[in-house]
Design goal:
Number of helices: 3
Oligomer: single chain
Number of strands: 4
Distance between the termini: 74 Å
Structural class: alpha+beta
Number of domains: 2
Strand content: 5-15%
Largest sheet: 4 strands, mixed
Shape: rod-shaped
Order of helices and strands: HHEEHEE
Helix content: 25-40%
Strand order of the largest sheet: 1-2-3-4
Length: 138
């Protein structure tokens, strides 16, 4: 037996071992969760293609709707090479335009831009590339 108040190495060793084991389990759990949250696979057509940390929930919904409209037009065999306007009225305040990334001179031609934005009826836009990925929204 040891005297009261003395350090027992076996108990300290067990405590350190259990603490390290718990930390490792938590670290592995966090890594697994992050793997599922931040997958960047192009295999899933329904994936969100924007980084959510820079946008509000409302903006994310707008982009998701714009990408849904893009996919619909793609199924209808739309030609995206000229950067057409996809929608002059997304929730009444937004237009959805396709552009090249990086931007090309053809993207600035009035016939390839949304008329509602050009005329000032709408002041917000969502710009997607020819694959439906977000370029910018303003």
């Amino acid at each position: 037996m040891s005297a009261p108040g003395t350090i027992k190495p076996i108990i300290i060793g067990k405590t350190v071992l259990y603490t390290v084991a718990v930390i490792l389990v938590l670290l592995i759990a966090v890594m697994v969760v992050l793997q599922f949250v931040s997958t960047d696979s192009d295999d899933s057509p329904k994936e969100k293609r924007v980084v959510s940390s820079q946008y509000t929930a409302f903006e994310l919904e707008l982009v998701a709707q714009a990408q849904k409209d893009f996919e619909k037009k793609k199924e209808e065999d739309w030609d995206f090479s000229n950067g057409p306007c996809l929608s002059n009225n997304l929730l009444g305040e937004w237009v959805v335009d396709v552009a090249h990334n990086p931007r090309e001179a053809i993207d600035d031609l009035p016939e390839n831009q949304c008329t509602a934005f050009l005329t000032g009826q709408v002041t917000h836009f969502i710009e997607l590339d020819s694959e439906g990925k977000l370029i910018r929204l303003k």
